[in-house]
Amino acid sequence: MIIPHPARLTRRAGSFAPAGGLRVLAGRGTERVARLLAGYLPRPSIHSGPAIRLDLVPDGNHGPEGYELDVTPTGALLTASAEAGLRNGVQTLRQLVPLHGPPRLPCLHVRDAPRLPWRGMLLDVARHFMPLEFLREFVDLLALHKYNVLHLHLTDDQGWRIEIDGRPRLTEIGAWRTESMVGAAGSDVYDGVPHGGFYTQRELRELVAFAAERGVRVVPEIDLPGHMRAALAAYPELGNRPDVRLPVWTAWGISPDILGVHDGAFAFCREVLAQVADVFPARHLHIGGDECPTTQWASSPLARAKAAELELTDTAELHPWFLTELHGFLTGLGRQAVCWDETGHTAGRLPPDLVVTAWRDAAHGALAVARGHQVIMAPHTSTYFDYRQSEEPGEPPRADVTTLRDVYRFDPLAGGLPVSDGTRPGVLGTQAQLWTEHAPTPDHVRHLAFPRLCALAERAWSPPARGYAEFQERLTGHLERLRALDALPKERVRFAGALGVPRKTVP
Ligand code: ACM
């Protein structure tokens, strides 16, 4: 029943079913993880009988995230070389307890470790603000599936969602819009309903701690230098047309309004990224870099002078230069920058030690590996969960369809790409993208996430030997568990608006 399927599992006859319930016994150094496990299990009556024992075995060869689980009729033993491994074992145990009847565990032996080190999910809280309580719930469901990264897309044209000290207008102005477009980019229908919200730094620190307890790190994204319209609505002087007042964008699509390349814009980026780095301890911080039209730079005397000073052939080359500068700043803070891998003027112009999220076609990911990058594979055709899951009516207004089977068939290592160990070029992992233009509520997100999230978890974690039919069988029972956890929408959600055009794939 387990999703993602363990690397090696041997089922044995019988079960471990102590009369007083499933009790947890913490070996030395495992107290925190033991508390996490106890919180997931039905509360046992106080008894001193056999228990689930957790042990750290530093020289046990489990790898940084692997674990071993041994369940016999007389007890259960979970061992790992590190806390991260124990946490993964806890999620396996959580899935082994039957939903109905007295608490027990099936007898088995599991030796397990992930296929890929980066197993992520992007949640876009910029297009639609999501309540903190839902973020916690979502993080816990990511942990259940052994994801270890929540990529939080915190800023975009339609909203700025993180409080920044010294820049109050970002959240006073930038976090609110008057209404939202209904339907895909280009629609002329608007809903007339104000939308907004933001997280305080304290709330985000609490989320980071909650996620860390579950082995999930939160990787924040500040999308730069494009997708910045909400920040420009707050501080027009950061852009290329300081005299033009822009409201926070109410439409979907790509806005031409981008940051300027003057000292004030860089001071802003440094200020924001320094505070973001302080709130989010993850080694990786995402600086965006996608869909940045450079037309405003082309007509800005200031940007043209900057390009000339840097001896660039074109103002478009300011785009990779900009990202390279921010990468250098984060390196100085001891952090690793990640950006979206783009086509066009940034292609081949980013320093190889910038980690890239390859979101165009899968071939772009392979190209980025060949250029020397560590790559997070996120091709839109397999990992964009804002796309429709089927041709059924009531799915999001996007022409593209990504079915459960499409996700399950996606192989982040297709073509024999190497896995990166975090130092060498190669595939660091994969992640799903949950953009929320058309997902205004947590229930919309739940509908888009499940069960595709389960399929990608398996591609990121499990060895690739299993077939889709076998996965579907396991999924049936798993969906029952997800329902019991309130992970699925209670009733069928509806997505409003007319279909857009398919996203063009780029050669
Ligand atoms: C993206 O879809 N613009 C990364």
From TrEMBL:
Domain Beta-hexosaminidase bacterial type N-terminal: 2-113
GO-annotated molecular function: beta-N-acetylhexosaminidase activity
CDD domains attached to this UniProt entry: GH20_chitobiase-like
Organism: Amycolatopsis pretoriensis
Name assigned to this protein: beta-N-acetylhexosaminidase
Pfam families: Glyco_hydro_20 (PF00728), Glyco_hydro_20b (PF02838)
Keywords noted in UniProt: Glycosidase, Hydrolase
Lineage of the species this protein comes from: Bacteria, Bacillati, Actinomycetota, Actinomycetes, Pseudonocardiales
Active site: E291
Family from the record: Belongs to the glycosyl hydrolase 20 family.
Assigned GO CC terms: membrane
Matching PANTHER family: BETA-HEXOSAMINIDASE, BETA-N-ACETYLHEXOSAMINIDASE
Reaction(s) the record says it catalyses: Hydrolysis of terminal non-reducing N-acetyl-D-hexosamine residues in N-acetyl-beta-D-hexosaminides
Enzyme Commission code: 3.2.1.52
Domain spans labelled Glycoside hydrolase family 20 catalytic: 117-463
